[in-house]
Here is the input.
Amino acid sequence: MEMPTPKGDDGEWVIIKDDLQEWIKELSSMLQEKGIPSRIALTPGCSAGKCGSTYLLLVTKENARIALENIEEYYMVLHPEIRESQEWVAQGRCPACGHHVGVDARECSDCGLMLIREEE
Ligand SMILES: [Zn+2]
Here is the structure.
């Protein structure tokens, strides 16, 4: 499988994050505010409806570390007490294994965990 590493004018682009579209967009604009250029790409090999709307966040290799630091910081600001499993559920992921199951899933297709969601 070929990895999506498009060559840009600024050098090599690397994937630093894969997540739901809205979160990737949020991180992308956050990085832009910090002066770090980023790109958004679809997960390779992900056909529609197969693995939800998983997107990739890419930055140039030289910015990868600073971008990750900024993302870490961003998480901390949003969630001072990081509880990863809650994070994952909010992102449509399985709290046990982190597999993207989508917000409507009742069961994790990866580890089989039953996902009980509170209906309004
Ligand atoms: Zn799972």
About this structure: The chain has a mean pLDDT of 80. Residues 4 and 44 are 7 Å apart (CA to CA). Strands lie at 7-8, 11-20, 38-42, 54-60. The two ends are 42 Å apart (CA to CA).
